[in-house]
Amino acid sequence: IYYISGNNNLYLFCYAGSLAFALADTVATEVGLLSESTPRSILTGRTILRGHSGGATLRGEIAATVGSMIIGTVCGSLFSSNIGQFLIIFVACITSGILSTNADSALGETLQCKYRCTICSKYSETKIIHCNAVTIRDRGFRLIDNNMVNILSSFIGATLCSFFILAFNLL
Predict the structure, then answer these.
(1) 13, 99, 141, 151: which is deepest, by most CB within 10 A?
(2) CA 111 to chain centre
(3) pTM of the full predicted structure?
(4) Dist. CA 107–CA 92, nearest whole Å
(5) Mean per-residue pLDDT for 20-37?
(6) What gap in Å lies between CA 158 and CA 145, rounded to an integer?
(7) 88: closest CA among 166, 155, 24?
(8) What is the per-residue pLDDT for 2?
């Protein structure tokens, strides 16, 4: 898209925003799973089971911030010609990474399809056989799985980063 658009730099920042989301979400998930604290719902603040969509921990949020900072540092270094531009790109990547990661949690909790075992009531993100019974759809939309939530959140990250860059007239 960058090449076809005649090298429009806005697409570079869309890419930076989606990369910021991808790294932030990945490290937040992995570090959050290792966290000693109980995850809380991103929407209600209630405790939820570890590994379920929609949960957040302080360590996971810190990891998301660090992941976004890494992408911001790399993109700021590659795409800026002065310290002012570097700081704008850096902050744009951090902001888009953190906000889209939390949007991912919110979408995962509200829209993502969840399946429940009819025997033990354990939840799963996919239709599986559990306790020798097929899980049934309990909530969410059948077509929205974790992959779809990640795609939507990647678009959110790209959009947020590009809006930030446009707001500061960096193009």
Answers:
(1) 13
(2) 14
(3) 0.89
(4) 22
(5) 94
(6) 20
(7) 166
(8) 66
Two structure tokens written together for 95? 């902001």
Q: Which residues pair with 116 in a beta bridge?
A: 123, 136
- Within 10 A of 119 (CB to CB), how many other CB atoms are there? 11
Largest CA-CA distance found in the chain, in angstroms, rounded: 62
Token duo for residue 169 = 């007239």
The alpha carbon dihedral of 154, 159, 161, 162 has a sign of positive
Question: What tens digit of pLDDT does each residue of 91-110 get?
Answer: 999 999 999 999 999 999 99
* pLDDT for residue 1: 64
Q: Which residue has the higher pLDDT, 122 or 89?
A: 89
Asked if residue 109 lies in contact with residue 43, where contact means CB atoms within 8 angstroms, the answer is: yes
Q: What is the DSSP string of 88-157?
A: HHHHHHHHHHHHHHHHHHHHHHHTB-EEE-TTT--EESS--EETTEE-EEEESBTT--HHHHHHHHHHHH
